[in-house]
TrEMBL record:
<keyword id="KW-0378">Hydrolase</keyword>
<dbReference type="InterPro" id="IPR029033">
    <property type="entry name" value="His_PPase_superfam"/>
</dbReference>
<dbReference type="InterPro" id="IPR000560">
    <property type="entry name" value="His_Pase_clade-2"/>
</dbReference>
<feature type="compositionally biased region" description="Basic and acidic residues">
    <location>
        <begin position="1"/>
        <end position="18"/>
    </location>
</feature>
<dbReference type="Pfam" id="PF00328">
    <property type="entry name" value="His_Phos_2"/>
</dbReference>
<dbReference type="GO" id="GO:0003993">
    <property type="term" value="F:acid phosphatase activity"/>
</dbReference>
<keyword id="KW-0472">Membrane</keyword>
<feature type="region of interest" description="Disordered">
    <location>
        <begin position="1"/>
        <end position="22"/>
    </location>
</feature>
<protein>
    <submittedName>
        <fullName>Phosphoglycerate mutase-like protein</fullName>
    </submittedName>
</protein>
<keyword id="KW-1133">Transmembrane helix</keyword>
<dbReference type="InterPro" id="IPR033379">
    <property type="entry name" value="Acid_Pase_AS"/>
</dbReference>
<feature type="transmembrane region" description="Helical">
    <location>
        <begin position="49"/>
        <end position="70"/>
    </location>
</feature>
<keyword id="KW-0812">Transmembrane</keyword>
Amino acid sequence: MQGDHDGRHQQRISEPKSAHYYTPDSDVAYPLIYAPITQRKLSNVRTRLRHAFLLLLALLALLVSGYSIVTHRDVRANDPLRHVRSARPVDSDNYDSGASFAPPAIPKLWAVYAPYSSVEVYEPPPEDCRVTQVNILQRHGARYPTFGQSTRIAKALSRLQSADSFLDERLHFVTNYQYGLGVNNLIPFGESQSHESGRKSFARYSKLTNWDNLPFVRASGSDRVVRSALKWIEGFATSSGDVLQPPLALILPQVIGGYNNTLEDKSCPNLGHPLGQVQEWQSRYAQPIADRLNAVARGIPNNLTAEDAEALIELCTMETLAVEEYSPFCELFSKEEFEGFEYSVDLDKFYFTGHGSQLGPVEGVGYVNELLARLINQPVQDRTQTNTTLDSNPETFPLGRGIYADFSHDNLIVAVVSAMGLFKNHRMGDTSNTGVLDPEKLDRSRAWFLSRIVPFSGRMVVERMECGIPLNDDAVGYDDSTGMKERQRRRAERNDSVYVRILMNDAVQGLEFCEGVDGDGLCPLHAFVHSQAYARENGQGDWERCFE
Ligand SMILES: *[C@@H]1O[C@H](CO)[C@@H](O)[C@H](O)[C@H]1NC(C)=O
Ligand SMILES: *[C@@H]1O[C@H](CO)[C@@H](O)[C@H](O)[C@H]1NC(C)=O
Ligand SMILES: *[C@@H]1O[C@H](CO)[C@@H](O)[C@H](O)[C@H]1NC(C)=O
Ligand SMILES: *[C@@H]1O[C@H](CO)[C@@H](O)[C@H](O)[C@H]1NC(C)=O
């Protein structure tokens, strides 16, 4: 695993800040050179001469900066050291708030291609509670386009680049543009995201571990997932001053149909990938983009299609994260068009392994049953994707650990949250739970935003805690406008002492499906187990339907 990727990472960290951060192009030197002149009174010939000279300088500066932008853009795609050249601040907030090299509002509209950002500020457990176990299910960090995406991007690019010229100057860079992204693998930004997550896990949960109780870490077998797990471990270990070095205990091979793998989403052979809804929506939001581009591309032999337009947006998202600079492709799209793109990806996953799919959620059942086993400290009960050989062996499925961290893919995590009952697409605040996403009309009040569920490096954290710890009686005269003290009092009166709380990317989930959940998002563990009937009953027939 210690390939040149890791070597590059080391160098990159020690490299000073460079000009690769997102800076709007208008911030180049030109306005600064020009500004003093306007404040002068141009009364005599000398001043006028100087004015002309300064103007010439300004023009030169413009030319040079324009030239360097152009050459920079041409060169960077083929520059093997381009990642080394872009150092990042060590400040972790950089990763919690997304990518600093793009305008803040835009990457949040990239659905599963959004970089991780905290959806809410992490709320520590209530004072009367003490966390006793955490289960982290995390997506790999940011990556290059997959093979399929690369093919679609290449097709769209070749169509666009076959134009003789462009009437829109935002497209002029396309003529000399060279595509240079890798395929499938984790990118340096993605490594840093995972490292940062490990660091943060240590900061939050280090009390749950010691030499005899190290985090138990598993990964599904693809390179980017394994590397993400290793980077998380690195972040965790470094934070502990290299005292606690959890091993990557288990890599579950990705042999489709040949290996029982609870961290892989390809376990249900009859699960189709319905494309109708996505095509329907693409014809509405992406066809107008294609038409607009076709209209300004002179002499284009094959018009771009709606799918091509979407591929160019994907290129924008992934080039931005790989090069760590706002891609010029992104400048081709408006905020509304990015919203259309986001909805397209949200629809795709909703109808693939999400609530909109009959058989998708069952792919998450094996993981949920493993989660329940850890939470209640009992052997795994499952007849779906679990490997009984592994899960009955304490070496490969230990109980009683403080921290479990599992690394996987977006489609699997979407299946898991759907199997559990999270993010049911009711309109916000409406509990009828009948909502499916409308492929003909963008639904702004949906609960289903993948940028908040599985962005790159996105994570679900299930905290188990013991509550009812007696508190100092400082409640007299205490302003309890949020009801916090009252909830503590009720927990203390209850017979339950063990609770679970679920955070998606730091946002506490309401757990409407869990009986007895309170305003802190805490649900008694036994009620939570009870609520997971779909998993405990092995998909209630859906698993069998996967093979019929
Ligand atoms: C289960 O895991 C064992 C141990 O890794 C492996 O030998 C076996 O092939 C696995 N079986 C399936 C069906 O995944
Ligand atoms: C290509 O798109 C342009 C602009 O939308 C349109 O005028 C033209 O008819 C299209 N050509 C073909 C062959 O579809
Ligand atoms: C793998 O999964 C299948 C289907 O659920 C099951 O029949 C089989 O026993 C599992 N194999 C192992 C080793 O757990
Ligand atoms: C708590 O347990 C006791 C004894 O088992 C029972 O009588 C009581 O009703 C329980 N209280 C609640 C709130 O469930």
